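Q: Please design a sequence for this.
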């Protein structure tokens, strides 16, 4: 975690600006936060809009909110922090006093998802559904999704690499290190 700004007074009141660099940083944030604190963070908010014709639509927008923290939950398995509270600063998307939950979630690590169209035609329905949910999750959390045609050379190459890849917003634990460690025990 990177400390960007620190302004602490003698009575321990003040503010800090932190930038998470890996998933484990959420555990440190969990230990720093207390109920009643103010938390300012970038988040995704579902916003409903009404057109001039009266039709209602919804979209997800990225906005910065300041919450008065009411509940703090941490999932140690996923290194996921969940903070619920009321908005302290009104903006064009969220009124003051409105509730919101901020999740630095693992799916938020994905900035751009690269996926082969073969996975949407997979014979196993649960597998196909899993990738549809992944795509929806990335889009819901403000990420980009690029679907590659298996009829194009780039789609063929992606399919050879499992059919899915991602560009991340921040580094996460390398799963291959855990696999390497378990295989060396067998030798």
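A: Design:
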């Amino acid at each position: 975690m990177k400390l960007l700004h620190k302004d602490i007074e003698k009575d321990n009141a003040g503010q800090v600006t932190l930038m998470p660099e890996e998933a484990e940083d959420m555990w440190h944030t969990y230990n720093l936060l207390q109920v009643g604190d103010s938390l300012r963070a970038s988040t995704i908010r579902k916003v409903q809009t009404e057109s001039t014709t009266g039709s209602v639509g919804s979209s997800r927008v990225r906005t910065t909110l300041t919450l008065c923290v009411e509940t703090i939950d941490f999932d140690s398995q996923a290194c996921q922090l969940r903070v619920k509270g009321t908005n302290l600063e009104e903006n064009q998307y969220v009124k003051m006093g409105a509730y919101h939950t901020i999740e630095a979630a693992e799916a938020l690590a994905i900035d751009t998802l690269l996926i082969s169209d073969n996975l949407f035609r997979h014979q196993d329905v649960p597998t196909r559904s899993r990738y549809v949910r992944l795509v929806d999750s990335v889009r819901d959390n403000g990420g980009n999704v690029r679907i590659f045609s298996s009829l194009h050379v780039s789609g063929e190459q992606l399919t050879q690499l499992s059919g899915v890849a991602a560009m991340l917003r921040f580094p996460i634990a390398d799963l291959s290190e855990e696999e390497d460690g378990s295989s060396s025990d067998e030798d």
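Q: Thanks. Anything notable?
A: Residues 125-140 form the longest helix (16 residues). DSSP finds four helices and nine strands in the chain.
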